[in-house]
Amino acid sequence: MIEKTYCEEVKPELDGQRVKLAGWVYSNMRVGKKIFLWIRDSTGIVQTVIAKNVVGEEVFEKAKKLGRESSVIVEGIVKADERAPGGAEVHVEKLEVIQAVSEFPIPENPEQASPELLLDYRHLHIRTPKVSAIMKVKETLIMAAREWLLKNGWHEVFPPILVTGAVEGGATLFKLKYFDKYAYLSQSAQLYLEAAIFGLEKVWSLTPSFRAEKSRTRRHLTEFWHLELEGAWMDLWDIMKVEEELVSYMVQRTLELRKKEIEMFRDDLTTLKNTEPPFPRISYDEAIEILQSKGVKIEWGDDMGADEERVLTEEFDRPFFVYGYPKHIKAFYMKEDPQDPRKVLAADMLAPEGYGEIIGGSEREDNYDKLVQRIIEEGMDPKDYEWYLDLRKYGSVPHSGFGLGVERLVAWVLKLDHIRWATLFPRTPARIYP
Ligand code: 4AD
């Protein structure tokens, strides 16, 4: 490894000091006998100045030809200069070209390229500053979640990805050959987390989840990162409190640590700052009334899709909950509402500004007979869920949990126009390469 100074460390305070930068050419502009070579690394961009009378004719000619993304090592002296980005530039004394590139497929401003080009060249696109910023924000949100979960006594567990049953409906299962049987890619770790609460009480996991969703929307991936929690002795209202505290901490901490990156995407931080709990709570019934009053054609009992949720988010300037959904549009494991058997004790958290659902959660059916009945009603075979049903036979307790779609949260925090930009190599029905 080479001893180097990172671009973000080049500041006016280093004036007069010698530094060695290692990175990639971000832009190359010649003005008379000088070349302004902007160098990029994982931390930022620095302006370097190559003067013919310092480096000599040969190096100057070589530098002139360096295209974007050429890899270089430069050594030189820092000069404080208000005109340079970051207030300092490096006057180059030595230039080492690791690999010269003549043409890079992604334009300097990737927004000028079509999404198709960026996705075809995603392996090259991900080195651009805005993609790096998205990945840093995602990493920080997860780091913050870990901090919060550790502080609040939640145990991390590592559930399997190869599974034998559906959690969220058979229609979106990816099936694969497993020796002489079939298996599926996990849609959610939930059932395994439910088993884990009997030993650890408060558990969480972060796993890839898979959905063979053919729907090509701005908020669906076929592979996404799923942050799931499951807590024993908790009812729906308890788990909603956990959800808002966790999301609040994740967003506030990321605002604190990654403001610069967030501001590359957002001028207005209001909705992110508005994440102090409690979040507003409205019932499904109220949501339907609001939608009908705004002219949306929807009846009690209908599921809310992205369009309906978008309209609903216009009413809020912060994340909010919708609770008390009709039973027939929700999953088999959700506990029936004892006050109204048409409903289940479920709540989704919706992000404002049109983003909609980022969390799906519920209290779980903890009664053996009722759970068997729900499995049959959904057209499934209780035999396939024998181990899961055992959990209702041996010391069953009230419990609740939820799943947060990490890329959906990132998409909202950064106001991305599509969830695919929130993941390193997006997987959608149309794309599994690169
Ligand atoms: O609402 P979902 O389907 O709930 C579950 O999977 C539960 N078993 C989770 C649990 O209770 N442990 O998914 C949870 C969240 C959604 O709110 C959404 O944020 C995200 O996962 N999600 C997706 N994100 C991207 N692409 C998809 N196709 C997604 N499907 C769900």
Automatic annotation (TrEMBL):
Entry's localization field: Cytoplasm
Reaction it catalyzes: tRNA(Asn) + L-asparagine + ATP = L-asparaginyl-tRNA(Asn) + AMP + diphosphate + H(+)
Residue span, Aminoacyl-transfer RNA synthetases class-II family profile domain: 135-426
Keywords on record: Aminoacyl-tRNA synthetase, ATP-binding, Cytoplasm, Ligase, Nucleotide-binding, Protein biosynthesis
Name this polypeptide is given: Asparagine--tRNA ligase
A Pfam entry, by short name: tRNA_anti-codon
First-level EC class: ligase
NCBIfam families the UniProt entry points to: asnS (TIGR00457), PRK03932.1 (NF003037), PRK05159.1 (NF003483)
EC nos: 6.1.1.22
Family named by the database record: Belongs to the class-II aminoacyl-tRNA synthetase family.
Tagged with keyword Nucleotide-binding: yes
PROSITE patterns: AA_TRNA_LIGASE_II
Matching HAMAP family: Asn_tRNA_synth
Molecular function terms from GO: asparagine-tRNA ligase activity
